[in-house]
């Protein structure tokens, strides 16, 4: 049996730069983390997975369906949704509206239903609203439901982005540095939420994260990228001890460049 | 209670004032202001609805019987309200800057102008104009032709954003006007710069005068347009448009199909203009390409921006303010200055009659309009009635 999500030999080039080189990745359940120094190709990989970039080579399948060539909205409709490294909320819309937009792929209404306000419309709108409220409560933003996204504090914006992504009822959630800029306490709370979501919604998660404490604590498996190539994969402790990983992060003794620090915050 | 009485009083008083001074522009402005005041006043909803309905359905035609020109102004306002609401979908909600919007208005206008006048004989040989009753069918035709043109424009510009989109739509608007100007040969479709006339007017029930019939027709269409606008805005479709405006890439990643949503925005916006084009051509009896210049597109855009982008009441108020400003206030101002000039009034010891002709009041009109726009953008950039995020009742989880 093939995995829920599987990528094989994904290669992506930008002009002369090979951002990803023959990356394999597979996930069935639980939380998998992707780590690596800045510019390793982590976000590029996400962009390939979600259809924002087209891979030059390789294949990506989700529930045995090939994803390459599909548009981002089609991939979302299949059940993969994501958040962004630099938060990309709909800034002038309320938290509630942000979540409602996230449900777009699941709204089974047409133009005619909307214009005529048939009973179907009211029933669907009501159901959407109820689900949106439940989601906001889940990510702890119910009280801020009617506040404009732009005015929310940073941590709330991060959580709202997760809520918005969950609104599309994904089976696979891709989180791009969800704890960036959070305090240790906030990051811990977010990870507990993530664990609970994985358990309750039978959600598979791929996590890009720089915060090693979070990665080691929450991941079932860790994949390390460096210069667009996968250099290690395995359980967190194993990867942590891998010499190639340490080299990628700390640099070799003779490399002379500025040392990349293993983010121990 | 006091507010309610006051609201009724203000509307009644201003109507009475118009009846007494049917020639005074200021008094008519007072009447319009009173309607805005009623709309904004904190009075019960039913009272507000009743007052506005009474004012638009009864008082306005009544005022028209004192001074027919006011009814003409009101009809024009209605036409531009529908145009502004259409453009509001494209620019205000979906954030697609369209500088050639009047093209859709032109397409609608020409569709009835050609078939509702002997012009179609030049194309098909004979049998035209169509019976006036066809006008009502052509309201639907105008809608479809407008929407189709909207999709036609939308397809090539889907990948464009911001400045680039604006330039292409501007070009599109000009293409339609130039086509109208030049499609008189080899086959005479549009009769070129000479324009088309006479365009048939629709049969009117109850023997209403044409001016009132058109007023009510425009009012009816505006009501439908407002209703459609509100329903779209309050649905997943409207939310998707706003999401595209806010962040196109994120919207697509959240499952919003960009192509379909954008085309729908273009088609909806254009269809309103198409319908109003049909009404416009029948009302004017005569149309030529001069009615559909770039300046008209900019005028409608100014209405949307002045009123408040993405706001339905804003588009209505913006369209009213700009139309009334152009048709009445600035013209009135020019007339007044001219009267002063002819009366030989002196200001600071200088006789106005000595004013060089370059400084004739009629030439200030555009300048004053421009200055008002600039001042608005500096002091109230969000518009007169900006879009407000509604607080919503949350469903029970």
Automatic annotation (TrEMBL), chain A:
Q: Glycoprotein as a keyword?
A: no
Which Pfam families did the record assign? Answer: ABC_tran, BCA_ABC_TP_C
- GO BP annotations listed: D-alanine transmembrane transport; L-alanine transport; L-isoleucine import across plasma membrane; L-valine import across plasma membrane
What GO cellular component is one of the record's annotations?
A: plasma membrane
GO MF annotations for this entry? ATP binding; ATP hydrolysis activity; L-isoleucine transmembrane transporter activity; L-phenylalanine transmembrane transporter activity; L-valine transmembrane transporter activity
Task: Report the CDD domains cross-referenced here.
Answer: ABC_Mj1267_LivG_branched
| Top-rank lineage group of the source organism | Bacteria
Instruction: Give all residue intervals belonging to the ABC transporter domain.
Output: 5-252
Which PROSITE patterns does this one have? ABC_TRANSPORTER_2
Instruction: Give the matching SUPFAM superfamilies.
Output: P-loop containing nucleoside triphosphate hydrolases (SSF52540)
Keywords noted in UniProt: ATP-binding, Nucleotide-binding, Transport
User: What Gene3D superfamilies does the record tag this protein with?
Assistant: P-loop containing nucleotide triphosphate hydrolases
Query: What is the protein's given name?
Result: ABC transporter-like protein, branched-chain amino acid transport system ATP-binding protein
TrEMBL record, chain B:
Give the protein's recorded name: Inner-membrane translocator, branched-chain amino acid transport system permease protein
Could you tell me the keywords of this UniProt record? Cell membrane, Membrane, Transmembrane, Transmembrane helix
- Coiled-coil annotation reads none
InterPro entries for this protein: ABC_transp_permease, LivM-like
A single GO molecular function, which one? Answer: branched-chain amino acid transmembrane transporter activity
Q: Which organism is it from?
A: uncultured bacterium Rifle_16ft_4_minimus_37862
What does the record say about its membrane topology?
Multi-pass membrane protein
Spell out the Pfam families in the cross-references. BPD_transp_2 (PF02653)
């Amino acid at each position: 049996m093939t995995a829920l999500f599987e990528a094989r030999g994904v290669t992506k080039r930008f002009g002369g730069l090979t951002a990803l080189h023959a990356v394999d990745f597979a996930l069935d359940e639980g939380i998998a983390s992707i780590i690596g120094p800045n510019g390793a190709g982590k976000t590029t990989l996400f962009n390939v997975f979600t259809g924002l970039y087209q891979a030059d080579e390789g294949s990506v399948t989700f529930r045995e369906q090939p994803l390459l060539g599909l548009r981002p909205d089609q991939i979302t409709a299949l059940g993969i949704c994501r958040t962004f490294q630099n938060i990309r909320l709909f800034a002038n819309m309320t938290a509630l509206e942000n979540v409602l937009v996230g449900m777009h792929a699941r709204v089974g209404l047409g133009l005619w239903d909307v214009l005529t306000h048939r009973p179907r419309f009211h029933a669907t709108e009501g159901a959407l609203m109820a689900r949106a409220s439940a989601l906001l409560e889940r990510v702890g933003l119910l009280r801020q439901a009617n506040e404009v996204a732009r005015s929310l504090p940073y941590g709330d914006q991060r959580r709202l982005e997760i809520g918005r992504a969950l609104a599309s009822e994904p089976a696979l959630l891709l989180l791009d540095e969800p704890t960036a800029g959070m305090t240790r306490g906030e990051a811990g709370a977010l990870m507990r939420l993530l664990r609970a979501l994985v358990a309750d919604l039978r959600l598979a998660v791929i996590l890009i994260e720089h915060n090693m404490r979070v990665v080691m604590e929450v991941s079932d498996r860790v994949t390390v990228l460096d210069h667009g190539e996968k250099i290690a994969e395995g359980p967190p402790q194993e990867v942590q001890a891998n010499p190639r990983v340490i080299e990628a992060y700390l640099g070799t003794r003779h490399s002379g460049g500025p040392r990349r620090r293993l983010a121990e915050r | 209670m006091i507010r309610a009485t006051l609201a009724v009083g203000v509307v009644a008083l201003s109507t009475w004032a118009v009846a007494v001074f049917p020639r005074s522009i200021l008094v008519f402005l007072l009447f319009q202001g009173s309607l805005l005041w009623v709309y904004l006043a904190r009075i019960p909803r039913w009272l507000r609805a009743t007052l506005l309905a009474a004012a638009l359905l009864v008082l306005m035609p009544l005022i028209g019987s004192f001074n027919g020109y006011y009814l003409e102004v009101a009809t024009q306002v209605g036409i531009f309200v529908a145009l502004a609401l259409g453009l509001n979908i494209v620019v205000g909600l979906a954030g697609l800057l369209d500088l050639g919007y009047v093209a859709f208005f032109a397409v609608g206008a020409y569709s009835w102008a050609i078939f509702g006048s002997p012009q179609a004989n030049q194309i098909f040989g004979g049998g035209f104009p169509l019976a006036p009753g066809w006008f009502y069918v052509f309201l639907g035709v105008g809608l479809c032709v407008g929407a189709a043109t909207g999709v036609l424009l939308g397809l090539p510009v889907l990948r464009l954003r911001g400045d680039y989109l604006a330039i292409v739509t501007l070009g599109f608007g000009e293409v339609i006007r130039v086509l109208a100007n030049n499609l008189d040969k080899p086959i005479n479709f549009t009769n070129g710069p000479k324009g088309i006339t006479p365009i048939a007017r629709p049969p009117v029930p109850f023997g209403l005068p044409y001016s009132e019939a058109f007023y009510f027709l425009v009012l009816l269409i505006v009501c439908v347009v407002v209703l459609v606008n509100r329903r779209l805005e309050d649905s997943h479709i409207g939310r998707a448009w706003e999401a595209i405006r806010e962040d196109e890439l994120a919207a697509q990643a959240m499952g919003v199909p960009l192509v379909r949503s954008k085309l729908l925005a273009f088609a909806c916006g254009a269809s309103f203009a198409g319908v109003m084009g049909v009404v416009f051509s029948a009302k004017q009896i005569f149309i030529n390409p001069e009615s559909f210049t770039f300046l008209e597109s900019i005028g409608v855009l100014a209405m949307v921006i002045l009123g408040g982008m993405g706001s339905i009441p804003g588009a209505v108020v913006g369209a009213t303010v700009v139309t009334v400003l152009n048709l009445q206030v600035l013209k009135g101002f020019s007339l007044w200055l001219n009267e002063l000039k002819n009366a030989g009034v002196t200001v600071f010891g200088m006789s106005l009659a000595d004013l060089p002709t370059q400084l004739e009041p009629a030439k200030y009109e555009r300048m004053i309009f421009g200055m008002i726009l600039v001042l608005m953008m500096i002091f109230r950039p969000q518009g007169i009635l900006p879009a407000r995020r509604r607080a919503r009742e949350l469903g029970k989880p």
